[in-house]
């Protein structure tokens, strides 16, 4: 594959472009669209990648990555339908939108791969889940895996699981940021300067994440290793359980899944 067009140069679109360049892609192999001229000029200045309109970008691409907001998909599909070449791979990074929506709005036989990435793509540590549409083959999935491997890790899932993925890892970084925010506030309450509390918690989160990735132990085992009898940690865990934090997290993720389903249905009804 030699030519990729990224439609929508928001944070995720920019992160993908930057990751592809860092992985060795030539600026001549990439293009992007951006409806705000100032933003487009800034990206071209910083990354060296040329901007184009949807029709021009799609007509020259072998893979088109759609990274627009779900509510903006209708006009993009309308432009793509007349511009895309037969056999061009379409990769959707749009939360909640099923491959059937793209297949119905694009020429018959267009291969579509649905992706749910997350914002750690900005630092090359994304978790992306990919699913094949009706006309996408293993070769198409491998192409997308290679593309997204430049900005993190990739897993294949059935499309029926994508709404759950959206709720768990797509929105997941926000849950961690929320918890870190609360823990920093707790440190301030206990008398620590904000900068010290933030440094303590961020490094603790980084270290804990590395332990989770590199250890073969279940999270319960890792937690128990910190939890001494009658110690400080078990006192904290008791309060978390008393306030229903575990149940609240499960309910929150379920609500995110339901919202992802709603977004897909709303887009299909337009």
UniProtKB/TrEMBL annotation:
InterPro entries: 6-PGluconate_DH-like_C_sf, Acid_Pase_AS, NAD(P)-bd_dom_sf, P5C_Rdtase_cat_N, P5CR-like_CS, P5CR_dimer, Pyrroline-COOH_reductase. Pathway: Amino-acid biosynthesis; L-proline biosynthesis; L-proline from L-glutamate 5-semialdehyde: step 1/1. Its main location: cytoplasm. Keywords: Amino-acid biosynthesis, Cytoplasm, NADP, Oxidoreductase, Proline biosynthesis. It is found in: Cytoplasm. The keyword Amino-acid biosynthesis applies. SUPFAM superfamilies: 6-phosphogluconate dehydrogenase C-terminal domain-like, NAD(P)-binding Rossmann-fold domains. Residues 159-263 form the Pyrroline-5-carboxylate reductase dimerisation domain. One of its GO terms (molecular function) is pyrroline-5-carboxylate reductase activity. It comes from the Bacteria. Pfam families: F420_oxidored, P5CR_dimer. Its EC number is 1.5.1.2. It catalyses: L-proline + NAD(+) = (S)-1-pyrroline-5-carboxylate + NADH + 2 H(+); L-proline + NADP(+) = (S)-1-pyrroline-5-carboxylate + NADPH + 2 H(+). Residues 3-96 form the Pyrroline-5-carboxylate reductase catalytic N-terminal domain. Gene3D superfamilies: NAD(P)-binding Rossmann-like Domain (3.40.50.720), ProC C-terminal domain-like (1.10.3730.10). HAMAP family: P5C_reductase. Belongs to the pyrroline-5-carboxylate reductase family. Catalyzes the reduction of 1-pyrroline-5-carboxylate (PCA) to L-proline. This is Pyrroline-5-carboxylate reductase. It comes from Pseudonocardia acidicola.
């Amino acid at each position: 594959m030699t030519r990729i067009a990224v439609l929508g140069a928001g944070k995720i679109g920019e992160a993908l472009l930057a990751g592809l360049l860092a992985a060795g892609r030539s600026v001549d192999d990439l293009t992007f669209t951006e409806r705000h001229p100032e933003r487009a000029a800034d990206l071209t200045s910083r990354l060296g990648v040329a901007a184009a309109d949807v029709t021009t970008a799609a007509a020259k691409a072998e893979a088109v990555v759609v990274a627009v907001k779900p509510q903006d998909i209708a006009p993009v599909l309308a432009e793509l339908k007349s511009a895309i070449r037969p056999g061009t791979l379409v990769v959707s990074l749009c939360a909640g939108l099923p491959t059937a929506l793209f297949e119905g709005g694009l020429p018959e036989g267009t291969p579509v791969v649905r992706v749910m990435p997350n914002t750690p793509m900005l630092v090359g540590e994304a978790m992306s889940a990919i699913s094949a549409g009706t006309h996408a083959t293993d070769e198409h999935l491998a192409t997308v895996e290679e593309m997204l491997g430049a900005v993190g890790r990739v897993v294949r899932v059935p499309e029926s699981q994508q709404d759950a993925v959206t709720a768990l890892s797509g929105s997941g970084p926000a849950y961690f940021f929320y918890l870190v925010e609360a823990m920093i506030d707790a440190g301030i309450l206990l008398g620590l300067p904000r900068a010290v509390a933030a440094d303590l918690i961020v490094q603790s989160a980084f270290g804990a994440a590395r332990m989770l990735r590199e250890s073969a132990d279940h999270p319960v085992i890792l937690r128990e290793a910190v939890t001494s009898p009658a110690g400080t940690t078990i006192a904290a865990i008791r309060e978390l359980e008393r306030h229903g934090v575990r149940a609240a997290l499960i309910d929150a993720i379920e609500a995110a899944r339901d919202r992802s389903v709603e977004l897909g249905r709303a887009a299909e009804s337009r």
